[in-house]
Amino acid sequence: MALTQVIGSGIGSIGATTVTGEGTATTSLQQGLAKQWGHFDQRGDTLGANTAGDTFNTTSFTDVEAGHIDVAIANDMSNATYSVNATTHYNGTIASDRFSRFVGASGIATGSFRLAGQYENNNPEDVYFHGILVHGDLA
After folding, report:
1. d(Cα 85, Cα 133) in Å, to the nearest integer?
2. Burial state string for 18-32 with b = 16 or more CB within 10 A and e = fewer than 16
3. What letter would DSSP give residue 31?
4. HSE (CB half, 13 Å, CA atoms) of 90?
5. Could you read off the pLDDT tens digit of each residue along the chain, which spans 139 residues?
């Protein structure tokens, strides 16, 4: 089916939409789309302290303590086994990329999760900004 036919028939009302990818493989559009993402400046050096940048399907970011933020998802996921991919950045400049930061998600629930970022010496520390990307099934 041509893309113009899918759009013309109302893509919002179709239950499962697949497209042909490379070769003959098909990909589910619903499964392949990011379900939540966001950018959050905890320290305040790029956007301002505790300020969200660009987001999608994100209700809020809450600064819990040094290096820890809680992320609330606007439209819940269907279960707590979705994938959270996150990054932290020192200040986003090439000159400072030697300052390693580590981040991981914990407390994953259908509508929220916590990110914990730390510096290379294992000390929790507010990070310049977090980048978050979630894949999985919406409820």
Report:
1. 5
2. beeeeeeeeeeeeee
3. H
4. 11
5. 444 444 444 445 456 777 777 778 777 777 778 999 999 988 887 788 899 999 999 999 999 988 889 999 999 999 999 999 998 876 666 776 666 677 889 999 999 999 988 776 666 667 677 889 999 999 9
Q: Whole-angstrom distance between the N-terminal and C-terminal Cα of the chain?
A: 28
Q: Which two tokens stand for residue 38?
A: 């966001």
CB 48 within 8 A of CB 63: no
Structure tokens at 138: 């919406």
pTM: 0.77
Whole-number pLDDT of residue 71:
96
Q: How far apart are CA 36 and CA 135, in angstroms?
A: 7
Residues 6+ apart with CB under 8 A from 16: 28, 30
Tell me the H-state helices in 10-90: 29-32
What whole-number distance in Å separates Cα of residue 85 and Cα of residue 103?
A: 9
Instruction: Describe the chain by its helix, strand, coil percentages, rounded to 5.
Output: 10, 45, 40
